[in-house]
Every structure is written in structure tokens, then in C-alpha cells.
Amino acid sequence: MWRCGMGTEMLKHWPRYTLSAIAIFLASAAHACPSDKVINDYLTAFRQAKPAAGFGENLDMASALCAQQKVVSALTSDFGAVVGYKAAFTSKASQERFQIDGPLIGFMFKNGMRPDGSKVAVDYGARPMMEADLIAVVKSADIQKATTAQEALNHIESFVPFIELVDLALDTNVKMDAPTIVAINVAHRGGVLGKPVKIEDARAMFAALPQLTIVTRNADGVEMARDRGESMLGNPANIILFLAQDLSRRGIKLKAGDMLSLGSFPGPQAIKAGTNVTVAYEGLPGNPSVNVTFE
């Protein structure tokens, strides 16, 4: 999520965050949490699919990570267990725009996942959007021992076409800077899953991923968006490695079956009632696709 296509005004002088700094912030986040009232007000609005007031002015990354932890913990009672993790800011352009040094992470919930061909209410969120995405399904916990993108891909069972159901969640007057996006769990509300594509030859797949073409079309076959795998830090496998390593730094252990969402192609897209959308993955075996109708 959040590539170069975001149109919201960004803070121009936000301090840059390194991955190591974020890890330190996470460890110290308990000392910088927004108040329980602020968290509860956000959760109430999110559950009602109404725009929330946000987490206050000048939210820093330490506070944002703590807010995310509390929000995710609370939402498991509504959306079920965490079944995967999503990467945001997966292009260099988006990282430069938000002044961060690498992707950031969100958490995905079991009950938010829907099957291919689902019909989804257009007002499922306060500020709903969709993203053409791609999920990698973990084959082995040994993925967190990987030191290269190829090694990480060796521990992936399959790829799954994925349309993420995004919710920007906040009032339009709230600045959507990097900490704010982290606090709202990187805007995740759910998604639509296609059929898994098993990886038979990880080395050949690694070579093919940069040329993968992801095309979003409406019911009339009109192209709405197009992107390539190489836009994901050169190769989507690099995002897999990042997620495996960053989650390990956080003390989160991956297991077989966990889902890793690799980011949007090319960014969030507006939705409207009566729209049928298909995302095709040209270059994956069988050229699979995933479909959703917004009602």
C-alpha cells in the first residue's frame, strides 16, 4: 500500500526513520501511547465505518506504533485472529515522499478475508478504496532465517491474487503522514482472495517476478491501472525478505500458512457502487486473476 499515487498533502519535513530506529521505537512505545480515550474513540468510529478524529497533532512514530499495537489487539475481537502481515510504502517514490527509509507493516485479520467473486458493500469503511495486491503464503518458519530475497522466496508455498479493501478511516482534515497511517494499521480492513498459485521452481519464479504485470480492469474490459513487479523495490521477493526480517526483529514468529501482502500495484484506487473489478496477474503461471463487485 501507499505508492507514489497518493494525492493527500504530506508533511514536507518529517524526520526520516531507519528500520533500526523503528525497532527501538517499538520497544519503547509503551511510554508514548495516545490515551485510552483517543484509542477507544478511534475504535468506535472504525467499527461504525465512520471517519475518526485521529490521534492528535504531531503524532510521532513511537506513539503510532503503540497505537497500532492497541488497535490491532482490540480489533481481533471483531475481525478474528491475525492471519498475515502487509507491507506499505513498497516503492522508492513513496518512501521518499513520506521520508521513511523502508516499508512499514500492518496486520491482517481472518474474518476480513473474502473469496474470489465476492460482492462488497461500497460503504464498507469510512473512506473505502481498493488496491491490487499480491499475497505470498509462507511454507516454513525457516523463512526468518533467510538473508537474501531468493532464500526468502524458497520458503514461500504459493502466491495468491489479492484485492485489498482499504479504509483511510480518518476525517479528511487529518494529515495522512507516515505515523498516522501506521496508527490506523496501514488502513487495512480486509480483502478478496483469489486462487493460490503454487511455486514449483523458486529460482525461475524469482527471475520472472520483476516482469510480472498486474492489470486492473472493469467489467467492460477497460483498463483502470497497470504496474509491474519491478516497482516493488526491484523484485517482490525483496518485500518478502523485508517482512520476514522486520517481523523477526519485532519478536513475531512466522509459521506455515501465514500470509504476506506485498503492497499495491500501483496504489489505492477509488471505488463506486455498481463497479465490477478484475485484477489479472500476467506472468504468474496460468495468468490468474481475482474479482470483486462493489454494491
UniProtKB/TrEMBL annotation:
SUPFAM superfamilies: FAH. One of its GO terms (molecular function) is 2-oxopent-4-enoate hydratase activity. Residues 1-32 form the signal peptide. The keyword Cell inner membrane does not apply. Keywords: Lyase, Signal. Gene3D superfamilies: Fumarylacetoacetase-like, C-terminal domain. GO terms for cellular component: cytoplasm. Residues 99-284 form the Fumarylacetoacetase-like C-terminal domain. It comes from the Bacteria. It holds the Pfam family FAA_hydrolase. PANTHER family: 2-KETO-4-PENTENOATE HYDRATASE, ACID HYDRATASE. This is Fumarylacetoacetase-like C-terminal domain-containing protein.
